[in-house]
């Protein structure tokens, strides 16, 4: 075995410039000025530097697809499926994002229906 390396290694998306999450959120706000600040902040907090992969070329909220509530969009769910192997609504709502906490039952059921599609 080689020497230990994981103790100081950032998690995926954790390689924030100058380790400053607030500055990163502001930078994303500049890059995505037409998106709701709460959505940009939520995606930044959930995905760190991978937020740009989630948001991609979005110019408007419509570019992100369906809004399920709690700043969770169709594009983010697609990212979670494709890049983080999320396969169920429970995985998206409770393990990957915790978006299920502020959502109402109808919103959670909509995510479940979408994930089943």
The overall number of domains is 1
Instruction: Give the number of helices.
Output: 6
Q: Which structural class best describes the helix and strand composition? A: mainly alpha
General form: globular
Radius of gyration: 15 Å
Which stretches of 5+ consecutive residues score pLDDT under 50?
none
Q: Tell me the distance between the termini.
A: 44 Å
- From N to C, what is the helix and strand string? HHHEEHHH
CATH level-1 class? Mainly Alpha
What does this structure look like?
With 117 residues, the chain is mainly alpha-helical. It has a single domain, classed as Helicase, Ruva Protein, domain 3, CATH 1.10.8.870. The chain has six helices and two strands. The protein has helices at 21-31, 37-47, 51-55, 74-84, 89-96, 105-116; strands at 67-69, 72-73. A two-stranded antiparallel ribbon has the order 1-2. Helix 1 packs across helix 2. The longest helix is centred in the last third of the chain and has 12 residues, at 105-116. The radius of gyration is 15 Å and the shape is globular. The relative contact order is 0.12.
């Amino acid at each position: 075995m080689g020497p230990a390396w994981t103790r100081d290694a950032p998690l995926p998306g954790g390689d924030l410039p100058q380790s400053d999450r607030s500055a990163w959120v502001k930078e994303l706000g500049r890059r995505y000025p037409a998106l709701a600040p709460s959505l940009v902040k939520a995606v930044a907090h959930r995905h760190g530097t991978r937020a740009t992969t989630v948001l991609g070329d979005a110019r408007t909220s419509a570019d992100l697809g369906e809004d399920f509530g709690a700043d969770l969009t169709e594009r983010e769910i697609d990212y979670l499926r494709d890049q983080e192997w999320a396969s169920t609504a429970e995985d998206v709502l409770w393990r990957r994002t915790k978006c299920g906490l502020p959502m109402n039952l109808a919103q959670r059921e909509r995510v479940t229906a979408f994930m089943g599609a």
